Amino acid sequence: MTESPFKKGRAWIGLDIENLRHNVTVLKSMLPEGCQLMPAVKADAYGHGAVLVSKELNNMGVQAFCVATVVEGVELRENGIIGEILILGYTHPEQFYLLAEYNLTQAVVDFEYAKQLNSFGQLIQVHIAIDSGMHRIGERCENLEHILEMFRMDNLMVSAVFTHLCAADSKKEKDIAFTIGQIEAFQNLIYQLYENGFTPKTHILNSSGLLNYPECCGDYVRVGIALYGVPSTREDMQRYFSGIRPVLSVNARVSSVRQLHKGEGAGYGLAFTAEEDMDIAALSIGYADGLPRCLSCGVGSVLVNGCKAPIIGQICMDQTLVDVSGVSCVSTGDTAVLIGTSGDETISICEVAEEAGTISNEIMSRLSQRLERTVCK
Ligand SMILES: *Cc1c(COP(=O)(O)O)cnc(C)c1O
Questions:
Q1: 106 in ligand 1 pocket by Cβ < 6 Å?
Q2: Pocket lining: 127 vs ligand 1, CB cutoff 6 Å
Q3: Cα angle at 13 between 251 and 232, to 5 degrees?
Q4: Ligand 1 mean position to 353 CA, how many Å?
Q5: Which of 76-80, 178-182, 211-215 is predicted least confidently?
Q6: Kind and range of the H or E element at 312?
Q7: Does position 376 have pLDDT exceeding 90, yes or no?
Q8: Alpha-carbon span 109 to 131, nearest angstrom
Q9: CB within 8 A of 311, min separation 6: which ones?
Q10: Which entry of 42, 46, 240, 287 is annotated as an active-site residue?
Q11: How many A from CA of 267 to the centre of ligand 1?
């Protein structure tokens, strides 16, 4: 890959591709014979860069992907990604031609939608989504007649049926019982399809599904968050994600260092006031880059030269102030780490998510296009 001369200019994402490869190997080793990874590279591969990540996965022999939107699928094809690309979400009929033109596979969100797809008039590859209890998309398990009718539609090439588990990450007894119910309802449907002469491929599991219900793999496993080496919450990390390693770091330059005198305020609304003389630094990253604004005023910290530097005042759209009184020798051009490791210190995505009151999936998927994606290993 040719590196842009602007990479690591102002603020950037570092990608540890060795860790991505490691995670692929770990996850593949969990699959039974005949089951393939179908990595979720939606939302720009959870902020990592969908084209970059998918190319790497193609090189590692991965031949199936899932994305959320048809435009995400088109982007992958235009950049030479091969293999099956499943669009997990709704595609508007005006965009059906893209499915055919770019050889994309569409999830059938329900029976009405199957009829719309069928009436487009060109052959379309589909996977039928089955609602086994999440009640988001999918035709209900019990509507066997509708599902059979979809198999018989002239313009639909049905290669798989799939469902999605909505509580597979939970260890609560009632959630486990519910999940087992979802799996059984789906498997029961598969038997009924077999009895009617249809033998589609199947997939059920996302990352937490694979970790907790590995016996239900089917033909594909739709791993997202685990591939990127990140648990959704810190609790998950302690529970089951031991072998995988984070791929992404977020970094920004120190743009200016100055002294703040006792009693002076800093930033918008002067939300911060110095209690004594101190050293502060401005970083060239802000909420428009995906840094959650709710980390303002001491909620979040960053790492500068291996030391923690608390965020002070309000995070701005493009800049952030930090307290570097406890950091020796900070100068303009130094790298601040917002997610990742500096010296002996690490700030994990889970920590940031916890401070921001959300899950790591949201933090990653909101990292903006303005951050350069750079391969560091
Ligand atoms: C996003 C998504 C996945 C991947 O989920 P992870 O929890 O990140 O592994 C799998 N299946 C569907 C239907 C999804 O929307």
A1: no
A2: no
A3: 100
A4: 18
A5: 211-215
A6: strand 307-312
A7: no
A8: 9
A9: 295, 296, 297, 298, 299, 300, 301, 302, 320, 321, 322
A10: 42
A11: 39
Protein residue whose Cα sits closest to atom 6 of ligand 1: 224
Alpha helices (H) along 134-172: 144-152
State the maximum Cα–Cα separation within the chain, in Å, rounded to a whole number.
79
**CA-CA distance, 5 to 7, in Å (whole number)?**
6
Task: Tell me the pLDDT tens digit for each residue of 220-244.
Answer: 999 999 999 998 766 665 555 668 9
Amino acid making up residue 315: I
Burial (CB < 10 A; 0-12, 13-18, 19+), residue 29, is exposed
* pTM (predicted TM-score): 0.95
Check whether 1 has a pLDDT greater than 50. Answer: no
Rounded to an integer, what distance in angstroms lies between the CA atom of residue 344 and that of residue 341? 7
Using CA atoms, how far apart are residues 256 and 279, in angstroms rounded to an integer? Answer: 11
**Could you count the other beta carbons within 10 Å of the beta carbon of residue 344?**
8
pLDDT exceeds 80 at position 173: yes
What is the residue type of 27? L
Work out whether strand 335-342 and strand 84-87 pair parallel, antiparallel, or are unpaired: unpaired
Question: 155 CA distance to ligand 1 centroid (A)?
Answer: 27
Q: What is the 3-state secondary structure (H, E, C) of 248-292?
A: EEEEEEEEEEEEECCCCEECHHHCEECCCCEEEEEECCCHHHCCC
Residue 108's φ and ψ, nearest 5 degrees, are -85, 115
Written as one letter, the residue type at 11 is: A
Residue 236 pLDDT: 63
The pair of structure tokens assigned to 226 is 């685990």
d(CA 180, CA 185): 9
Tokens 């210190």 correspond to what residue? 345
Q: What is the pLDDT of residues 124-164, one digit of tens each?
A: 999 999 999 999 999 999 999 999 999 999 999 999 999 99
Angle (CA) 77 83 85, round 5°: 65
Q: Are 268 and 316 in contact (CB under 8 A)?
A: yes
pLDDT, one tens digit per residue, over 50-76 is: 999 999 999 999 999 999 999 999 999
Dist CA 132 CA 179 (whole Å): 9
